[in-house]
């Protein structure tokens, strides 16, 4: 055998196409995060992150990140950024990170952690768009730690604009976009509870409990005919999102958030009690659970 045969790269000749494809996959530098059924678990605002990602058209959550040995940085998480970019630093230095983006991996926490880490020390005017998420990065839990804040549900996208950017043309565009959005509002006194005005109106509650416990609780109330708001709203199903469950009720008439606070509080009290019940389901409750599970919709 000649020396030329020994020197010939094994991945060019004398190797099948299938083997060459396998080698390219093996040597790829891309990193794919592992799937996380409940990616926001452990975050103080887990429920709000899930709702902003899948249920609300316009909302913001402002957090202050404490950085040892460095200046603290305020980050505003938003449902979406202008032009659907992944994140940006506004002209006034405010960091905005979008939850609703085109690019996604199987770990939403990884995706957000990557974008936030890139923007923490970025200058005003920086925009992140088209960032390849297939790379190692801290997860959101590592970046924001125990930081928590109050989420705001907006009626338009005016939160996009810094004061200096509120020109007549920009404000007119914001007003036009509001006409195309589903109007939503938070129900006072309840966490992660939203009234969406969609003709009819819908009530959505993102619950912190494990999925099985939630479906058991819903089934217990359904079997006792206690799952509806009498004369006002009836249960129609549930969303599954990021390891959480968000039951949905449809109102029979148009309502406002301020008018339903008491009845929603009473519903939530019944629901929490039913979820906390660890007794085996009755026959009627088991049948009800099958019907409820069949009407769930998974959002990813």
List the helices and strands and how they pair.
Blueprint: H1 3-7, H2 17-26, H3 46-54, E1 59-65, E2 73-78, E3 87-89, E4 95-98, H4 108-119, E5 127-128, H5 140-144, E6 151-153, H6 168-180, E7 183-186, E8 193-197, E9 201-205, H7 211-223, E10 233-241, E11 244-251, H8 261-276, H9 283-294, E12 296-299
Parallel strand pairs: 2-4, 10-12
Antiparallel strand pairs: 1-2, 1-6, 3-4, 3-5, 7-8, 8-9, 9-11, 10-11
What report would you give on this structure?
The chain has 300 residues and is α+β, with helices and mostly antiparallel strands. Helix content is 32%, strand content 20%. It has 9 helices and 12 strands. The strands form 2 sheets. The chain has a 6-stranded mixed β-sheet with strand order 5-3-4-2-1-6, with helices on one face. A 6-stranded mixed β-sheet has the order 7-8-9-11-10-12. The longest helix is centred in the last third of the chain and has 16 residues. The protein is globular and about 60 Å long.
Approximate strand percentage: 15-25%
For the biggest β-sheet, the strand order reads 5-3-4-2-1-6
Number of helices: 9
Give the N-to-C terminal Cα separation: 57 Å
Helices and strands: which structural class? Answer: alpha+beta
Largest sheet: 6 strands, mixed
Gross morphology is: globular
Name the helicity range.
25-40%
Mean residue pLDDT: 90
Return the string of H and E elements: HHHEEEEHEHEHEEEHEEHHE
Low-confidence stretches: 1-15, 19-27
Number of strands: 12
Oligomer: single chain
Computed Rg: 24 Å
